[in-house]
Specification:
- The complex is a heterodimer.
- By secondary structure, chain A is an all-beta fold.
- Chain A is built from no helices and eleven strands.
- In chain A, the strands form two sheets. In chain A, strands 2, 4, 5, 9, 10 and 11 form a six-stranded mixed beta sheet that branches.
- In chain A, a hairpin with a 4-residue loop joins strand 7 and strand 8.
- Chain A is globular.
- Chain A starts with a strand and ends with a strand.
- By secondary structure, chain B is an all-beta fold.
- Helices cover 0% and strands 49% of the residues of chain B.
- Chain B is built from no helices and eleven strands.
- In chain B, the strands form two sheets. In chain B, strands 2, 4, 5, 6, 9, 10 and 11 form a seven-stranded mixed beta sheet that branches. Chain B has a four-stranded antiparallel beta sheet with strand order 1-3-8-7, with no helix packed on it.
- Chain B starts with a strand and ends with a strand.
- The chains are: A mainly beta, B mainly beta.
- The interface between A and B is medium-sized, with 25 and 27 residues.
Chain lengths: 109, 115
């Protein structure tokens, strides 16, 4: 059973700061997902990656398969980035996702 | 942009009643999932569905739960006799076929409250 750990659990930043959220997992995977959950509860998929690095706007996700570790970076953070960021892993193609606890990010103006 | 939809957005029911949660996955997707999130806890997998059958289910998905794709577009989760501990947000997700199958797109969720 895969264990997914995220750090930090809570993160408060000032607008404009560079943010890093980390995720580690215990068992080899086929893909890792970064998700965003807003206060209303809805979940939005940000990235799915199985190797290397992906960038979308101010968001960058990296993964190191050998170390079983991924990071989500937000450059020039903004209050609208405030949300819960969740790491989830799938061990095989089409399989269930195992979720981390999430990181509550608050960006103050 | 195509999206996964779920109905109802909120449901309140009495313990012991049956509920059916409905999802319309993205139209060309072939993998379907149900997850739930109890308030304050992490998201948990319930069941996955592919090729008109359950492909995987968790320990949570006991005999009280069932899934169905009745008409080729809807994907439903039925809870036969609800318990207080079934109160949660239920998310449907779908993904396209591929190698790997691709991003799972989540619906907005149904918030279920069992009294």
């Amino acid at each position: 059973k895969n264990e997914v750990e995220q750090s930090p659990q809570n993160l408060t930043a000032q607008e404009g700061e560079f943010i890093t959220i980390n995720c580690s997992y215990s068992v080899g995977i086929s893909a890792l997902h970064w998700l965003q959950q807003h206060p209303g509860g809805g979940i939005v998929s940000l990235f799915m990656l199985s190797s290397g690095k992906k960038k979308h706007g101010r968001l960058i996700a990296t993964i190191n398969i050998q170390e079983k570790h991924s990071s989500l970076h937000i450059t020039a953070s903004h209050p609208r980035d405030s949300a819960v960021y969740i790491c989830a892993v799938g061990e095989t193609s089409g399989s269930r996702l195992t979720f981390g606890e999430g990181t509550q990010l608050t960006v103050n103006p | 942009e195509p999206e996964v939809t779920q109905t109802p957005s909120h449901q309140v029911t009495q313990m012991g009643q049956e509920v059916i949660l409905r999802c319309v996955p993205i139209s060309n997707h072939l993998y379907f999932y149900w997850y739930r999130q109890i308030l304050g806890q992490k998201v948990e997998f319930l069941v996955s569905f592919y090729n008109n059958e359950i492909s995987e289910k968790s320990e949570i998905f006991d005999d009280q739960f069932s899934v169905e794709r009745p008409d080729g577009s809807n994907f439903t989760l039925k809870i036969r006799s609800t318990k207080l501990e079934d109160s949660a947000m239920y998310f449907c997700a779908s993904s396209a076929q591929g190698n790997p199958p691709g991003t799972q797109y989540f619906g907005p969720g149904t918030r279920l409250l069992v009294l």
